[in-house]
Amino acid sequence: MLETSNNSELPTIPGKRYFTIGEVSDLCAVKPHVLRYWEQEFTQLKPLKRRGNRRYYQRQDVILIRQIRGLLYEQGFTIGGAKQRLISEDAKEDSNQSQQIIKQLRMELDDILDILRR
After folding, report:
1. Spatial distance between the Cα atoms of 38 and 9, rounded to a whole number of angstroms
2. In terms of CB atoms within 10 Å, which end of the chain has fewer, N or C?
3. pLDDT on residue 45
4. What are the start-end ranges of the H helices in the chain?
């Protein structure tokens, strides 16, 4: 995952399951209307919506918002550039996970082959 240099300046994320838009705004130092705009721009950001379209963010959403904030405000990326960066990071993580799964499957298949040869 991307690390942002300003995370030490932001408050720690409490061990709650869900956060309101106001809480996320305080945790990430971003105004609520900006969060709503980012939801439209960044497809990875999908808070739960409940009664009356109220947004409830989870911990991974808060971390993603901090990453987006770091890319835009600290590193000077445009919205489009930040989108591309997040997509490329997701692709790298997916590739690493796929490689790990393939290695695990090969080991298991080798074990099965050993059992069958006996």
Report:
1. 21
2. C
3. 93
4. 21-28, 32-41, 59-69, 79-117
